[in-house]
Amino acid sequence: MTYVRVAALGELEEDTPKRVEIEGTPVSIVRTGGEVFAIHDICSHANVSLSEGEVEDCAIECWLHGSTFDLRTGKPSGLPATRPVPVYPVKIEGDGPDASVLVSITQES
């Protein structure tokens, strides 16, 4: 598995998604509840960016139609989305706000 540095931990605001691209793949990085998650940034129901939505209870909401996706599994919790979105492994290297947030898109979780 190949990991790519996407941000410093201190650059990620709690419950505020950050959109990044890794080798052309849009990914939303979310820091919530003391953990960092990486989820494909495009809603499986409509072609819109999940990073523009809100985060609550370890889920991200699609701003367009209100579907929410579990940040741990990518599974939707309600309509209109019925298909999950990919989630990606995350590693944190180092300590404090300068710690590196690394994501791998070569293998989905």
Low-confidence stretches: none
According to DSSP, the number of beta strands is 10
Corresponding CATH superfamily: Rieske [2Fe-2S] iron-sulphur domain
Can you tell me the CATH architecture?
A: 3-layer Sandwich
- The CATH topology label is Rieske Iron-sulfur Protein
Biggest sheet, in brief? Answer: 4 strands, antiparallel
Mean pLDDT: 94
Tally of DSSP helical segments = 0
* Helix share, percent: under 10%
CATH class category name: Mainly Beta
Question: What is the H/E order?
Answer: EEEEEEEEEE
Major sheet strand order: 2-3-4-8
The structural domain count equals 1
Beta percentage is: 35-45%
Give the termini distance in whole angstroms.
Answer: 12 Å
Q: Could you say which overall geometry the principal axes of the C-alpha atoms support?
A: globular
Look at the helices and sheets and give the structural class: mainly beta
The gyration radius over C-alpha positions equals 13 Å
Domain Rieske: 4-99
Protein name: Rieske (2Fe-2S) protein
Keywords: 2Fe-2S, Iron, Iron-sulfur, Metal-binding
InterPro entries: Rieske_2Fe-2S, Rieske_2Fe-2S_sf
Summarize the helices and strands and which ones pair or pack.
Elements: E1 4-8, E2 18-22, E3 25-32, E4 35-40, E5 55-56, E6 59-61, E7 68-70, E8 87-88, E9 90-93, E10 100-103
Antiparallel strand pairs: 1-10, 2-3, 3-4, 4-8, 5-6, 6-7, 9-10
InterPro entries: Rieske_2Fe-2S, Rieske_2Fe-2S_sf
Protein name: Rieske (2Fe-2S) protein
Domain Rieske: 4-99
Summarize the structure.
One of its GO terms (molecular function) is monooxygenase activity. By secondary structure, the chain is an all-beta fold. It is built from no helices and 10 strands.
